[in-house]
Amino acid sequence: MHASSIAYEIAQTAARLVVEEGLEWGPAKRRAVRQLGLPQRTALPDNDALEAAVREYIALFCADTQPQELRALRELALVWMERMQAFRPYLSGAVWRGTATRLSDVYIQMFCDDPKSAEIALIDHNVQYDVTEVTGFHGEAVDALSISHFCKPLNEAIGVHLMVYDFDDLRGALKPDAQGRTQRGDAAALRALMDTEEAE
After folding, report:
1. Quick one: pLDDT at residue 1?
2. Residue-level pLDDT at 85
3. Angle 151-102-155 (CA atoms, 0-180°, nearest 5)?
4. CB 86 within 8 A of CB 59
5. Which of 7, 18, 105, 171 would disulfide-bridge 45, Cβ 3.0–4.6 Å?
6. Reduced to 3 states, what is the DSSP secondary structure of residue 107?
7. Side-chain half-sphere of 83: how many Cα atoms within 13 Å?
């Protein structure tokens, strides 16, 4: 098989795992390689190729359910962004990019002057959370305050991860990607996005 068609096969298989099982993109690509019986060292498709495959999969198999699920997740994200407003929250990941389903977690990046202050705010509001490590936008390990929030419209518990960055990271975070797309948005940007999509 040609390298480009192998990458396409991996992206298609990984897209199904992302949508149907809620896998993160890295693990989905690696599992796709195993499922297709390819050598471990096979070159993986880039995230743009996988995102295109995920969008295609959603359009084919989830077009009637995904828009409502995405809206419910975005509304949940807004609740937490309003609660954590003091820490400059930005929504990122599949919920921001529009590829999320009911199996997707919500990732909110916060840019804090004092990283401990966000934890203190949760403690003050009696919010149960776990501190986990997630991969940051430069590939570094970042602390995330992970909360399980019951989402009524979806009738299930959704993972909400409040990722704690230094305030200094904010400038770099707002640069668009190679395609000129924004990687994250604040509450105002998210509301504007939701209004635009509803109007369509």
Report:
1. 62
2. 96
3. 35
4. no
5. 7
6. strand
7. 19
Residue 145: Cβ-neighbour burial (10 angstroms; 0-12, 13-18, 19+): buried
Residue 49 CA to residue 44 CA, distance in Å, equals 10
DSSP 114-164: SHHHHHHHHHHTT---EEEEEE-TTS-EEEEEEEEEEETTTTEEEEEEEEE
Has this prediction a pTM greater than 0.85? yes
Instruction: Please provide the DSSP assignment of 46-81 as one string.
Output: PHHHHHHHHHHHHHHHSTTTHHHHHHHHHHHHHHHH
- pLDDT tens figures, 93-106: 899 999 999 999 99
DSSP three-state, residue 184: strand
Record the tokens describing residue 66, joined without a space: 């995904």
Max CA distance (Å), the chain: 57
How many residues can be counted in the chain? 200
